[in-house]
Amino acid sequence: MIRGENILVTGGSGMVGTALQQVLPGAVYVSSRDCDLTDPKETLRLFKYQEPEKVIHLAARVGGVLANTKYIGDFYNENTSINLNVLEAARVTGVSKVLSLLSTCIYPDEVEYPLTEEQIHNGPPHESNYGYAYAKRMLDIQSRAYRQQYGCDYVTAVPNNLFGENDNFDLQNSHVIPAMIRKIYEASVNNRDVYLWGDGSPLREFTYSGDLASILVFLLDNYSEECPINIGNTEEHSIKEVAEIIAELIKFDGKIIWQTDMPSGQHRKPSDNSKFREICDVRYTDFGQALTKTCEWFIMNYPNIRGM
Ligand code: NDP
Questions:
Q1: Is position 29 annotated as part of the catalytic site?
Q2: Pocket test for ligand 1, best of 16, 158, 177 (most atoms within 8 A of CB)
Q3: 132, 185, 223, 284: which is the annotated catalytic residue?
Q4: Average pLDDT in the 154-180 region?
Q5: What is the mean pLDDT of residues 143-170?
Q6: What's the alpha-carbon Rg for the chain, to the nearest Å?
Q7: pLDDT at 216
């Protein structure tokens, strides 16, 4: 059998889904155009038609801080519906394995660092994204409950900040790296300086979407525990360092002006991936190389990019 046959990937058109297509070309990739997963009947129809043996569940309404706050009810509603429908359709049609993605941003706001998996439910998430965060936390609960009652091998994995080709570059809706790439590139072509929030000192962890894709394939065959597993690259980079690397890659001649009157955010949010490292000898792509690939892709495809 060709690797990937009988594997269904939801969210197949997104950043992670398109990266996965490179390492798992034989799987079936679906987007919202193929099936609206917020609709239980459509979702069940998809599963009955495809008869997948395994599912990688990536579909979600995803966004940056602005979108998460402005549309907090929609983020809760859509993500809860998608997750509920996907896991239930999988259970009813006898799918043997579902691997779903959570996110480190769903951990409690007040938590002991580094983030370890058993702390996920130990307190409320940050108020800016509690709609998305609780919907994702329920995905963990549903996976555990189905394991307990029905014996389903449904697992969840927790990446940190992701970036890569095919990301969303909408400034109202994007994460930190795609937003900085777009701002610096557009400032460069218009011969302007670029203004970025805060002082650039916070440290963050970033994982390249191509690395995540390989990790998902590994987990599908090698992870069957009830507890979520942190899988992100735990190397930290300051926002300032990231901006400077992007500016160099884009050959930006202007000035980066840090708006120190705007919030910088928490200084660090480190996560602990030691559980994952125990089962996988993971080699993450060098950060500079991954950023280079992402910037090159952005420049090649601009302005025909999601979020323009
Ligand atoms: P994208 O926004 O790039 O892609 C989202 C995918 O979900 C698209 O394929 C989209 O389809 C699909 N989708 C959205 N709504 C529906 C719906 N109602 N019915 C069917 N499909 C739908 O997300 P990413 O690739 O960035 O994220 C993948 C996963 O990783 C998500 O679960 C996310 O929560 C998680 N994650 C992401 C992080 C990040 O930094 N991006 C960080 C941590 C976790 P269409 O293209 O048709 O809209």
A1: no
A2: 16
A3: 132
A4: 95
A5: 98
A6: 19
A7: 98
